[in-house]
Design goal:
Bound molecules: nicotinamide-adenine-dinucleotide, uridine-5'-diphosphate-glucuronic acid
Radius of gyration: 23 Å
Number of strands: 14
Helix content: 40-55%
Strand content: 5-15%
Shape: globular
Length: 431
């Protein structure tokens, strides 16, 4: 198949390189010329395990190309994937469809033969109808189908999630594009994953409902963790005990600093706004958003308690600052709220993240260190913020080289019992 991927970000690059790995001819396009030039030089714009190898292999084979010539790339292709961002409009809490609409207009002007237009970006219910309306001018009649194929990959696990998805959802009421998409996904759906054909609007809502539900699961366990802290119970035992019930399942029951990232925060808000438009009150999702947004205040209160309210001039070390392990993505990371607070309180913050330094922190009192060792030395408090593997078996005493210091493990990576036996001043979440 000849595929054009519009928007070469996390979703576009992963989908494009994976489709090319399956033998398709793929052109990934983007408006960001620097990104495309770098990709053509073999420089990766994002950190995603396994992606660089996949891109280099398929680029070398000539199956994967990068271009900023969107019009000619559309003309050359049979299937067009829209993978541009749909950020939240902070004033209206609606998904901003500016980029999607731009792309729909470009497609409208470049339909030289029949094409399947696939929305992979996360878009509110009825967006497919709107894209169809934009493209459906006289000269384009019967030359296209707009379908929905929401993406469920997670950053850091994206390649695996793409090749072994739990399900592939295709939303269309027409037979022709469904047959084309089934063929495209055949090598993947053979591997146990389910191909679920549904209406376009259902596919759009399945995506938001899934993210809303996962965000709810995480927020639920975080609130139970608060109860565990007060009642001296270990949240990990509660999550395991609950998860053994197959109706509940143990995934996404890890208590932590609250969900972040480019999707759960924006998608929960957009879902509520869509429901409001349809005069439906999604009260559960609304509470989830509120609870998650205030979680950092709870963490700050705990930090103050650990430090006996004496933060001024304290040396704080952050291990990991990204919103989760396996990605360089800082979008809506809890660290973006906690670190500025600590700086305001007069702390000196040093951090190390395996994905490198971040441009988000511009203050003389926050410094990136090139290793765990450099970041930890002399700290009064270590905050284990992101669950990168390399933070899972540290010898804190050797690293800090100080008599009195505390550890606040936001990811419950360590056993409280073992830490107590080592006489370490250790605190974690819900335990
Ligand atoms: P991203 O910001 O990483 O990438 C989007 C890319 O689109 C950018 O490179 C941007 O330059 C490009 N772009 C914008 N307008 C363009 C245009 N007119 N023509 C060509 N390129 C254009 O975004 P992302 O994280 O890949 O997310 C894309 C969509 O997929 C969003 O709707 C998101 O909610 C959804 N999604 C993301 C993930 C994820 O893990 N990041 C997972 C599932 C779904
Ligand atoms: C999430 C979904 O898992 C994907 O299925 C979806 O495709 C994607 O959003 C999207 O729509 O963009 P992602 O944001 O990459 O993927 O990361 P997750 O692994 O879901 O983690 C999201 C947040 O929840 C992180 O901050 C993570 O630390 C937190 N989390 C996750 C927990 O606190 N506890 C858990 O048990 C799981």
């Amino acid at each position: 198949m000849k595929i054009c991927i519009i928007g070469s970000g996390y979703v576009g690059l992963v989908s494009g390189s994976c489709f090319s790995e399956l033998g398709n001819n793929v052109i990934c396009v983007d408006v960001n010329k620097e990104k495309i030039n770098n990709l053509n030089k073999g420089l990766m714009p994002i950190y995603e395990p396994g992606l660089e190898e996949l891109i280099k292999r398929n680029y070398k084979q000539g199956r994967l190309k990068f271009s900023f010539d969107i019009s000619s790339s559309i003309k050359k292709s049979d299937i067009i994937f829209i993978c541009v961002g749909t950020p939240i409009n902070k004033k209206t809490n609606q998904a901003n469809l500016r980029y999607v609409n731009n792309v729909a207009n470009i497609i409208k002007n470049n339909l030289n033969k029949y094409k399947v237009i696939v929305t992979k970006s996360t878009v509110p219910v009825t967006t497919g109808d709107k894209i169809e309306k934009i493209i459906n001018i006289k000269k384009n009649k019967n030359k296209f189908d707009v379908i929905s194929n929401p993406e469920f990959l997670r950053e850091g696990e994206a390649i695996r999630d793409f090749f072994y998805p739990d399900r592939v959802v295709i939303g269309t009421n027409s037979k022709k594009p469904n047959t084309i998409m089934k063929n495209l996904y055949l090598p993947i759906i053979k591997k146990k994953s389910r191909y679920f054909h549904t209406s376009r609007k259902s596919a759009e809502l399945i995506k938001y409902a899934s993210n809303g539900f996962l965000a709810t699961k995480i927020t639920f366990i975080n609130e139970i963790a608060n109860l565990c802290e007060k009642s001296n119970i270990d949240i990990k035992e509660i999550a395991t005990g609950m998860g053994l019930d197959e109706r509940i399942g143990d995934r996404f029951l890890r208590a932590g600093p609250g969900y972040g990232g480019s999707c759960f925060p924006k998608d929960t808000k957009a879902l509520v706004t869509t429901a409001n438009k349809f005069k439906t009150n999604l009260s559960i999702v609304k509470s989830v958003i509120k609870s998650n947004e205030s979680r950092y205040k709870f963490l700050i209160a705990r930090i103050n308690k650990i430090m006996s309210n004496k933060l001024n001039n304290k040396k704080i070390c952050f291990l990991g600052v990204t919103f989760k392990a396996g990605t360089d993505d800082m979008r809506e990371s809890p660290s973006l709220k906690i670190i500025p607070y600590l700086i305001r309180k007069g702390c000196k913050v040093r951090y190390y993240d395996p994905s490198g330094p971040k441009s988000n922190f511009k203050n003389n009192n926050i410094k990136y260190c090139p290793s765990t060792k450099d970041a930890c030395v002399g700290a009064d408090l270590l905050i284990v913020h992101t669950e990168w593997n390399e933070f899972k078996q540290l010898n804190f005493k050797t690293l800090v080289k100080k008599k009195i210091f505390s550890i606040f493990d936001l990811r419950n990576l360590y056993s409280p019992l073992k830490m107590k036996k080592s006489s370490l001043n250790y605190f974690s979440i819900g335990r």
